[in-house]
Design brief:
Length: about 700
């Protein structure tokens, strides 16, 4: 049975349905046929029994005279009439005493069961029963109401069986026809069920193999299969929607993985792939590939002063302009920050590359409209060319980067083709960085101090600490060379901390040596200002040196504090709470607004040297300096001018109300030892009577 079920499981639903429908039909028809056969058999036997009983009743009346007169011949003749009844095989008349009075037998060789010869007891009624192949009917013979004998008639069932056999034969034929019809109907019915299932299975297979979730099972049914198909189509619809959503997200992720989210340009990943592809084509075609590395000049100032939102808008506008000058087969990418690159496959050689670089310069030369502001931007462009400058992505990028920095060094807003000599300069810059990293540990850094003077009286009112680097081999390194490098590498943080500590320490030494309590001005870089531990660093320097916080003045540039005005105000208030003064260094060169200046807890404005240097060359510069002084008076702030190199400049500033200044005309930056001589020249000999030796000036009292 298990084997049969297992084999059935292997069959298709179509065959299973055909077998089931045909099998059920066969069982039902066969059952009906068997019932009808047995019913027909019963009906035939009942008809035979009725016929024989009627015959027995008629003959029992005819036989009674023969028994009364003991006329055996007449009785035999009466029984002989049974010859006309083909189904009657035997007949007998038995006396009440059980004696065979007369009998009839159709065939001499006929063998009858014994019980067919028994007579009926007196008083018994008519009796009939089937025995073997015979029907026996016993009928009492009466005369004047008294039983005088028994009439027995035996009918053969051969005729009944023949009729039943014919019925069975016709029934089997009919049954076969019915089964055939049932099979044909089963084929039709199974198609009604299996065809939708096969269609459903076929669609599922197609969907699974082709991953095509747009397919649907076309069927209109109201039954359970219709519900199944409807639900299946609904599931495909949900999967298609989910797949479309996933595909959309995948496309979006793929786009984000290869494009800059701000400008929509190719990012570094896609740029590397495009450049690699361009180099492959160039090798095959024996042509050139130009790589232009573009870095916007002073873009950080825009971010710091106008905010990152404005900076982002500026980058988008720059990207749009650069895209307008590139060809369809060129690749324009943003690597990050304010760095852009263009990959151009060139067949015209260097003239075409030069033209493209010039187009970049021209595209950036026009003012940019960002919101309501008109901004001017320029770019430094470094150009490297395959195969002359490099054979792969990395070497070309390195050469273009070096060329771009060369453009920066040459005043910005220009383009430079890479040359082998640039590599040497880049190596020198790297060596400079390595030496600078060691300078602090090797105590190569030192401070020079420039006097801040009351120009009306000539008295020293403060000192500004200026960083210097005395290298054992290179000698005194210009601040213009190493300070930008320190800013770029982050070394400005430990160096700035050291400057603050050293300046405070030196100021205390001067006080201990008996000199006036001058203000000590220390420059704070933008990176330092935005450090979370700035206030703690300042407090540590004051605590370790013992310097009075009221004499410390921190100089901060406009661009540094305008990066995030609210946060800057919070930091400045915390500094002011310690009694420390705050001055805006190089005032007038940044983007600070009057509303911000009113909120900043400042103590002084410092007029930038660019306004002081040309103060006598025209009315415009003088007007700017006057404007700064007027603004300082309005805000009740002190003002000091730097870069005073001529007496005429000092006289102009004094005439306009600016009494504090510093510059070469008033005193050059010098080491602590040199300031002793400078101070002696500023005061009379009597005021110097209590001044101790020059040694105490630097090293403290004995």
């Amino acid at each position: 049975m298990k084997t049969l079920l297992a084999n059935l499981d292997k069959l298709s639903i179509r065959i299973k349905l055909t077998i089931i429908i045909t099998g059920i039909s066969l069982v039902v028809l066969l059952s009906l046929f068997v019932v009808s056969v047995f019913t027909q058999r019963g009906m035939l036997r009942e008809a035979l029994k009725n016929e024989v009983q009627i015959l027995a009743e008629d003959m029992s009346r005819n036989c009674s005279p023969a028994l009364v007169f003991d006329d055996r011949q007449a009785a035999g003749e009466t029984l002989a009439t049974l010859q006309s009844k083909s189904q009657v095989a035997f007949g007998s008349i038995v006396t009440v005493g059980g004696e065979m009075f007369a009998k009839y037998q159709r065939r001499a060789d006929l063998v009858l069961p014994e019980n067919l010869y028994l007579h009926m007891p007196i008083g018994a009624k008519s009796k009939s029963f089937f025995a073997g192949n015979f029907l026996k009917v016993s009928q009492p013979i009466t005369f004047n109401g008294e039983q005088i004998g028994t009439l027995n008639i035996c009918a053969s069932l051969d005729r009944t069986r023949k009729i039943l056999l014919r019925y069975v034969t016709l029934g089997m034929i009919s049954l076969a026809g019915a089964v055939l019809l049932a099979w044909l109907l089963a084929l039709r019915l199974q198609r009604l069920i299996s065809r939708p299932i096969e269609s459903l299975a076929s669609t599922m297979l197609t969907v699974s193999s082709e991953q095509d979730y747009s397919r649907r099972v076309a069927m209109e049914r109201r039954d359970e299969l219709g519900t199944l198909v409807e639900n299946f189509n609904g599931m495909l619809n949900q999967i298609q929607m989910r797949d479309a959503e996933l595909q959309e997200k995948q496309d979006r992720l793929n786009y984000l993985a290869h494009h800059d989210p701000l400008t929509g340009l190719a990012n570094r990943l896609l740029f590397n792939d495009r450049l690699h592809h361009a180099l492959t084509n160039a090798r095959r075609l024996n042509s050139r590939v130009a790589l232009l590395f573009i870095d916007l000049d002073r873009f950080k100032n825009v971010n710091d002063s106008l905010g990152h939102k404005t900076g982002d808008l500026l980058l988008k506008e720059v990207a749009s302009r650069l895209a307008s000058i590139t060809r369809a087969n060129d690749t324009l990418a943003r690597l990050g920050g304010d760095e852009f690159v263009i990959v151009s496959e060139q067949t015209s050689g260097y003239p075409g590359i030069t033209t493209l670089a010039q187009k970049v310069q021209q595209a950036l030369s026009w003012p940019l409209q960002v919101g309501r502001q008109e901004l001017f931007v320029s770019g430094s462009v470094g150009v490297s060319v395959f195969p002359e400058d490099g054979e792969n992505v990395e070497s070309l990028m390195q050469c273009a980067d070096v060329a771009m920095y060369q453009a920066k060094e040459l005043g910005r807003n220009n383009y430079q083709f890479f040359t082998s000599g640039m590599t040497e300069r880049a190596q020198e810059s790297l060596e400079m960085e390595n030496k600078l990293r060691k300078a602090l540990d090797n105590q190569e850094l030192l401070l020079h101090y420039q006097p801040q003077v009351d120009m009306a009286s000539g008295a020293i009112i403060g000192m500004e600490a200026l960083l210097r680097w005395q290298h054992p081999v290179m000698g005194l390194v210009s601040p213009g060379k190493f300070i930008p490098l320190a800013e770029e590498t982050g070394l400005i943080l430990p160096i700035g901390k050291w400057v603050l500590q050293e300046a405070c320490r030196q100021a205390v030494l001067w006080q201990q040596a008996g000199y006036p309590a001058w203000t000590m001005a220390v420059n704070i870089s933008a990176k330092q200002f935005w450090q979370a531990d700035l206030v703690d660093t300042i407090g540590q320097a004051l605590e370790e040196s013992g310097f009075d916080s009221g004499l410390l003045e921190l100089e901060i540039t406009e661009s540094a504090i305008m990066q995030d005005a609210e946060k800057a105000i919070d930091t400045m208030l915390r500094i002011r709470e310690r009694g420390i003064k705050l001055a805006i260094d190089d005032f007038g060169t940044g983007y600070s607004s009057l509303s911000c200046l009113r909120r900043f807890p400042l103590s002084k404005l410092k007029i930038d040297r660019s306004f002081t240097n040309d103060i006598l060359d025209g009315e415009d510069r003088g007007a700017i300096a006057e404007g700064i002084m007027a603004l300082a008076r309005t805000l009740k702030l002190d003002v000091i001018a730097e870069g005073i190199e001529k007496a005429e400049q000092m006289e102009f500033l004094l005439a306009k109300g600016c009494t504090e200044g510093q510059g070469f005309h008033l005193g050059r930056p010098m080491p602590a030892e040199g300031l002793a001589d400078y101070y002696l020249q500023k005061v009379s000999l009597t005021s110097c009577a209590n001044v101790v030796s020059q040694s105490a000036w630097v090293h403290g009292p004995a």
